[in-house]
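Case 526 in the screening queue. Each case pairs one protein sequence with one candidate compound; here the compound is guanosine-5',3'-tetraphosphate. For every case the pipeline is the same: read the inputs, emit a complex structure as tokens, and attach any notable structural observations.

Predict complex for case 526.
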Amino acid sequence: MNKALNVLQQEVDKRRTFAIISHPDAGKTTLTEKLLLFGGAIRLAGSVKARKASKHATSDWMEIEKQRGISVTSSVMQFDYKGHRINILDTPGHQDFSEDTYRTLTAADSAVMLIDVAKGVEPQTIKLFQVCAKRGIPIFTFINKLDREGRSPFELMEELENVLGIRSVPMNWPIGMGRELSGVYDRMKNQVELFQGDDHSTIQVKKVDGYEDKVIGEIAGEYLHDQLCQDLELLDVAGDPFDYDKVMRGELTPVFFGSAVNNFGVQTFLENFLELAPKPEPRRSTAGLVEPTDEKFSGYVFKIQANMNPAHRDRIAFLRIVSGKFERGMTVKHVRAGKDIKLAQPQQFLAQDRDIVNEAYPGDIIGLFDPGIFRIGDSLSEKSEIVFDELPTFSPEIFAKVSIKNALKSKQFQKGIDQLTEEGMIQVFRTVSFDDILLGVVGQLQFEVFEYRMKGEYGVDVQLQRMPYQFARWIVMDKVDPSKFRINSVLVKDKKENYVVLFENEYAMRTAMEKLPEAKFLETAP
Ligand code: G4P
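Case 526 output:
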């Protein structure tokens, strides 16, 4: 093996790129911050939180982001820990997430699903889980806030199975909960992690001789030890055994219990996760599977963030590196545009600081300065014409009729809609009967950003009127009859002239499906 290839292999082996998926308030900000601290990124302490609380003084976040104190589009954080290089893809924790959130998940090789011990599986977790499950990536679960009274671990495991359809294998098990929490038992390493002191401020790790070891009872008390033994006996008999292949296929989720705010169970989780989580995975392309260790550099754009710097109105295209080594200043093929471009000003993202990056490897995310030449899904590659598989689109769930306030601006209006659709910011439809323009999104925030950008970048004031539809289905049949879609639904066309039906509720959708058995109803464009 030549030296360059050897280095590439080592760099790939040490990387882990993942996203944390959760419902707002489960503790994602807190957990992210603790992970960054383990990586020695001390200067970041408080910065993740500060960004969320909108306390940051940097001027280059979108106005809207500052006003609302949320991260409009996801960013990337990188840190090193015990020989690993870790990339965390941040997904907005606010309820107003967008299609970008979903697309960001396509750049992750695994996901960490964070669940509040008292609340269990919540709506936003379900949505994000489903996107990960479709890709079949490994999903690791961290059940948080163990220092509070919560639901029983068995009940939560049942919920994972019933609501998400995934089996689980607890890697550790709580000893008590809430006020009684005295520690966790590590099932894999046969050791206990114990809280000590009245304020639980110190953590002691002790090797034991199985969960029945009397030492546990001496420290945690007989009652909690008995409970632990009963639970673990039951798990040993009736629970799923750990199966690495099933974990890798996303059929079994390893579960860890802990408390992010107390830093309890976080380090064990991180270490186990790094051991088990996959390194950068190959991606499918026109040239077959592209392996990370292919020497030629390649990658694809999964997100474009506009207006990070309102003064310059520049955009950043986020690129996931798939293969080879990236070097600043290198020339690559922009396959769709059919031209060579020089990657001169790449940036890496570390919380809100941005550094110029000189080299990067598969699994890393780099931000490319974009004067308007990139689209979501674009492939870049060195000396070849690789095109990666198209990124998935997602079925819109919220709709609004859009109109222009000043008819004289209709040309800019059209241009704005075309460009923002192309960028993947919104999906656009026209009603068959009245030629109204409807926008479809997955999160309310996308409408706000749309309005903001139409005004800021195209000088157009738009009016948005929410429509009652909740589901979009692309309809495939010989002859589409608009009169069939009048009750609680509307027939529209997408920008490629495909027929789509928007339904107000599930009942209307089911009725239409029953009435038209010959038609196919697809969640996304065919
Ligand atoms: P998010 O990014 O998922 O939205 O959640 P975030 O980390 O902001 O956490 C939401 C709230 O839950 C915060 O409280 C945070 O301190 C708390 N929290 C996180 N992890 C734990 C935990 O392990 N145990 C307990 N008891 N609480 C936890 P807050 O009151 O909203 O904010 P703060 O004033 O405490 O910062």
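Case 526 observations:
- Residues 42-47, 53-62, 64-74 have pLDDT under 50 and may be disordered.
- Residues 22, 24-30, 93, 144-145, 147-148, 259-262 surround guanosine-5',3'-tetraphosphate (CB under 6 Å).
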